[in-house]
Design goal:
By secondary structure, the protein is of the alpha/beta class. 38% of the residues lie in helices and 18% in strands.
Length: 423
């Protein structure tokens, strides 16, 4: 094999020439073949796999924070990243070192031979290489898409979590919640705990998990949560935690926190109440209803499907004052379904072109925003930074700018705001 690039940027370019990041080809054969060649050993590391339409990243963050409070070491593999590639590989909550990641990517490249890994498969295997080398107490793996055929599912989880089931990626996972649920159930293993954070799971989901002989912990039955005046009570079976203010904003985060706490107790039953509560309160994660600027306030949220848009709408309803939207989305998303619950939330919409593969042009985005009332003002801009600049220039200090539509939209806004601060 020719010499491989030493830098992370060079290694990513090398991989992308063969396998673009946008390529999707679900299946486990390629990953398992290369995994066998790598001969990785995970020792005493406990593996947690997390699937779900929304809430995966937040649940990972809660688990990391709980582990950190307990002195448990972690490696969390998540996707996508917002600003830096190293965000995908967090060691004890800290993004991985570029050289360390590049070396893991090189190890996968040398091992794959003629196996045509997809970009995500290559990156997932790099995460497993890093875990084998670092031997963390917990390896937390966020499923990329679905579950059954996702690259993460090439390894057996000691504990699995399904956060939520919504309509997204229907082309690959199925057209109904029931079909999508069956795909996500594929991360279950016989005799291993499966945490289900859906209080009303789709038809057939529990039957599928029972067929796989998973040890099911069901929300609303084996654990539960209550939200009152910004504070959460978690009923974790024999343990009840009261008065917690989760570190991630929004009442929907109570369910993610509960799922993380229940998974943590399965892995480490001796965890005390203070550790669990402090971990949930201390969790942090960029792009989840994150306030990133003041006067005017700028909130960045990665909401990119109808279910996440409904959650965002509920959060905005509880906020006083006028709001404007900066919105950009990918072409395969249900734009009308995203816009519908938010139709009355904003005085003005700035629709931006997302200049990436699968990105929508602003004009086409506006055509698909049919759920907006006729009296709503919509303006087309050529990029997310342009839309953000226009919104900030037009807004009064007491107004709020809300940026959403995709992880790429959120990342572009965060980078634009950082450039403004440095000017």
């Amino acid at each position: 094999m020719t010499d491989l690039p030493a830098s992370l940027a060079g290694m990513l370019q090398h991989i992308e020439r063969r396998a673009p990041p946008s390529g999707i080809d679900l299946g486990l054969d390629r990953v398992r073949q290369v995994l066998a060649r790598l001969s990785l050993q995970f020792g005493a590391t406990r593996i947690i796999s997390i699937a779900g339409t929304n809430g995966k990243g937040s649940t990972v963050a809660f688990l990391e924070a709980i582990a950190g409070r307990a002195g448990i070491t972690t490696l969390a593999f998540t996707s996508p990243h917002l600003v830096a590639f190293g965000e995908r590989f967090r060691f004890n909550g800290v993004p991985g070192d570029d050289d360390r990641i590049a070396d893991a990517l090189c190890a996968v490249e040398r091992a794959r031979g003629d196996v045509a890994l997809t970009w995500f498969e290559h990156v997932t295997l790099a995460a497993l290489v890093l875990a084998s080398r670092a031997s963390p107490d917990w390896l937390i793996l966020e499923v990329g898409m679905g579950g059954r055929l996702d690259a993460v599912n090439a390894v057996d989880a000691d504990v699995a979590v399904i956060t939520s089931i919504g309509l997204d990626h229907q082309r690959f996972l199925g057209r109904t919640r029931a079909a999508i649920a069956r795909e996500k159930c594929g991360i279950a293993r016989a005799g291993k705990p499966m945490i289900v954070a859906e209080k009303r799971p789709p038809a057939g989901m529990l039957d599928a998990l029972r067929h796989q002989r998973a040890d099911i912990f069901l929300a609303g039955h084996d654990f539960d949560w209550r939200w009152r005046a910004g504070r959460v009570t978690l009923d974790l079976g024999r343990r009840v935690l009261r008065g917690i203010v989760p570190g991630l904003s929004g009442r929907h985060q109570a369910g993610n926190a509960a799922a993380a706490a229940r998974a943590a107790l399965v892995l480490a039953p001796a965890l005390d109440d203070r550790t669990l509560s402090d971990g949930i309160a201390g969790a942090r994660l960029a792009g989840r209803f994150e306030r990133v600027a003041r006067a005017p306030d700028v909130i960045v949220d990665v909401a990119h499907n109808p279910a996440a848009a409904r959650v965002l709408a509920a959060q905005l309803e509880r906020m006083p004052g006028a709001k404007v939207a900066v919105f950009a989305a990918l072409a395969d998303k249900d734009v009308e379904g995203i816009v519908r619950p938010l139709a009355g939330a904003f005085e003005h919409w700035y629709a931006a072109t997302l200049d990436v593969p699968r990105g929508l042009r602003a004009a086409e985005l506006i055509e698909r925003m049919r759920a907006l009332p006729a009296d709503r003002c919509v303006e087309a801009l050529e990029s997310v930074p342009d839309a953000l600049d226009a919104a900030l220039a037009a807004c009064r200090p007491e107004q709020t700018v809300v940026v959403f539509g995709s992880f790429i939209t959120a990342a572009a806004a965060l980078q634009a705001l950082e450039r403004r601060r440095q000017e």
